[in-house]
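Standup notes
- HV: blocked on the assembly model, inputs below
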Amino acid sequence: MTHTLPEAAVLRPAGDLVELTRALVDVASESGSEAALADAVEGALRAAPHLTVERIGHSVVARTSLGRAERVVLAGHLDTVPACDNLPSRLVDDRVYGLGACDMKGGVAVALQTAMTVTAPTRDVTYVFYECEEADAARNGLGIIAAARPELLAGDLAILLEPSGGLVEGGCQGFLTADVTVRGRRAHTARAWQGVNAAHRAAEVLRRLDEHGVREVVVDGLVYREGLNAVAVRSGVASNVVPDTCVVTVNLRFAPSCSPQEAEARVRALFPEHEVDVTEVVAGALPGLGRPAAASLLARLGTEPRAKLGWTDVARFAAAGVPALNFGPGDPSLAHTPDEYVPVAELHAVRAALTDWLTG
Amino acid sequence: MTHTLPEAAVLRPAGDLVELTRALVDVASESGSEAALADAVEGALRAAPHLTVERIGHSVVARTSLGRAERVVLAGHLDTVPACDNLPSRLVDDRVYGLGACDMKGGVAVALQTAMTVTAPTRDVTYVFYECEEADAARNGLGIIAAARPELLAGDLAILLEPSGGLVEGGCQGFLTADVTVRGRRAHTARAWQGVNAAHRAAEVLRRLDEHGVREVVVDGLVYREGLNAVAVRSGVASNVVPDTCVVTVNLRFAPSCSPQEAEARVRALFPEHEVDVTEVVAGALPGLGRPAAASLLARLGTEPRAKLGWTDVARFAAAGVPALNFGPGDPSLAHTPDEYVPVAELHAVRAALTDWLTG
């Protein structure tokens, strides 16, 4: 099958969903370079009379205003990680391959097509296509909108179309990163007994981390799996010197029922004899599956939700008081891999489920 | 007390030993910049009719040729580590302070004065003043002489005037450096159970190193203290990734009765399940205190020898079949410190002991 890059980035969002996904992949949009894709998406949305469109940076927000009792937000990021010899898109074995196909232009295609074709949804809908999700948090388009125009993100439920294998993944876990500094005393290795080897002392820190293992926590019926890992170890002065410090960087993934304060206390309690410097801590998001909007989606899908273990932008909605879940096409474990793809069947399934829910 | 830097580097080696030490300190000679000091030393030695002098790079060798039954080698390096705001020399409380005072211009002063004043020693003597001991091994002047003119280093005993607190330190320990690589399997920390944390596995490596502790080994009546230490630990991919490797760099100090091959086998046997990459292994030097020349020196001194725990250039002599020991003024633990000094009393004591031994 032949396929050429579009001469101009003009999308046909009401047309074939696979072609739309491929067109979105073929407009390169690494973080910081989303202008062309944002232009194309904005251009398509402005052609729809049932939508009110706003542009904020290289993010685009489109809304219906039908006066429905509920409002839901469908959101997806426009950017990708850097290319890895995986452009242009390819269609092989009913899978769309190419940079961002899985994370998350497949989801963007579904949301864009839904925006264009579901002209009279039974719930008002806010569509958010945003920039810089794969870059540092300060540039995240969703964060920028939340700060500048929080009313645009308001709703009874937010659905992030990040890849979730076509299943509903509720909430997300929080994470904490901290440096645990083990102290010793320097000495020449020829007279090591005059010092205290900090790297040797770190053995006990690593042992406790290993002992932590996986802890299952159930929230709203979903099973989260907390983990605590050393993600870096740094020690060393010179090859003939007993090192006087060893820094173990630890990463805790904690269930959304645990607050950042509790997470920090847990890590500190594990290493009472060492310095613990928390460098980053981010709350998770409660699944909120009991909310009416979420319950109706789950009922419509007829599948069991599962817990989201990684951190996603659903936490940004949760922090704003909007329950949020992940529901999108593509296997999340393929994200950021050179061979990422999205199955055509999942594109159609998610598209159909959302249309069904928004029109039923 | 006032003291000025010499206008030209002219030494008065037969004069006051403290002034000679200070003059040697005041001719800066960081590794690679020994030319001026080597010129001064060579000039002084060439003025002595009882000595045959040769210059090799910035090293100087001077020999008596009296047809004695024994030949001993007195050796010292001319270079220092980089200056640390510790020039010019100062004489305070009967200590000579300044860059290299302890390591080892005090020893060089003793050897140089002995060379000039002991004109008819009872043993033939080879004096070696050499460059680049504090730099990388390939530039070491003693190594260069050993390769180019090995006959110049021949003798029944070599005495290295490295600081040893005025005591005889026999032999030296060998050392081995190796990287122990612990393997795991990468995974996202949100799904850590899909991976194997290499840093966690390294806890057991560090525990075994700590368990090794200090092991005493007696050779020729001297007590060596072997030690095995982690000197560096490196692990880490990203703050959300379970690391798949953790490299622990270990340093073994081993008694001179242990061969490099045995040392390597010991480290490998300790970590049979991990990759062990030996990056450097250097043999120690047996004390050889039973040799007649060494025995007579010890008898003359009337002090007990002790084991040399660090590695020194005595090992270069040992490798050439010449028993060697360390005997020089200054506290070895002050070497390379900004406040290094050599006690005047030790300068005189070592000088007197050597003169006594070479003339008695």
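- HV (later): unblocked. Chain A has nine helices and 18 strands. Chain A touches chain B through 48 residues (CB under 8 Å).
- Next: hand off to the docking folks.
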